[in-house]
Amino acid sequence: MLCCMPGVAFVPALLVSWSSAAFIISYMIAVLAGHVEPLVPYISDTGTKPPESGIFGFMINISALLGVITMYIRYLLIEKQNESSHFVRSSCNIFSLCIGLMGCIGMGIVATFQELSVPSVHDIGALVAFGSGVVYITLQSIISYKSCPQWNTYFVCHIRMAISVISCIAFIPMIVFASQISMTKIDWTPGEK
User: Fold this and answer.
1) CB 101, CB 68: distance < 8 Å
2) What's the rounded Cα separation, in Å, for the pair 100 and 15?
3) CB atoms near residue 34 (< 10 Å)
4) What is the Cα 72 distance to its own chain's centre?
5) CB-based contact 154:148 (threshold 8 Å)
6) Each residue of 136-152: b (16+ CB within 10 Å) or e?
């Protein structure tokens, strides 16, 4: 089974490594340039001002592309497994892929339209990226359970579902708190709300 896609196992690892590097590098440049406070800034704040904005945008767009490739590989893997087991409808797999691709488009929007330059487009991109991401990993968790025990262990399924639940829980306060912000601004002065 795994021999049908030789050489693609590095793609998810590259996605995680590249994305982590994108956040860490833009954070370090933003802190060293004095553009953000070092204590837990928004990810988007670390990619708002030059020079880190260019690096952030470039690297996150590459991450979005790697995300598309990773999701497509996962789609193909499930299709191949499903040929012999018929554990999930093909339409569910396609729907999951489409939701994941929407999330990657949202990432590309976030990377291209900086937080302070075009805040409404940036925020819509973030909502699409995070919302689609939560739905995608939840659908993938469900597909994993349906493929047990032939293609997955229950341990892996439980881990995936735990990540899905944590993501869903984290998404709710993100929406609530983001809706409370009336103005996007990095630098605050004493006395401002």
Assistant:
1) yes
2) 14
3) 9
4) 15
5) yes
6) bbbbbbbbbbbbeeebb
pTM passes above 0.85: yes
Give, for 173, the enclosing helix (H) or strand (E).
helix 154-180
- The closest of 61, 26, 31 to 44, measured between CA atoms, is 26
Q: How far apart are the first and last CA of the chain?
A: 58
If one counts every other C-beta atom within 10 angstroms of the C-beta of residue 166, the result is: 12
Q: Over the stretch 104-161, which tens digit does the pLDDT of each residue have?
A: 999 999 999 988 888 889 999 999 999 999 999 999 999 999 999 999 999 999 999 9
* CA 187 to centroid of chain Cα atoms: 27
Give the C-alpha distances (Å, rounded to integers) separating 25 from 18, 31, 39, 47, 67: 10, 10, 15, 10, 19
The DSSP 8-state label assigned to residue 1 in this structure reads -
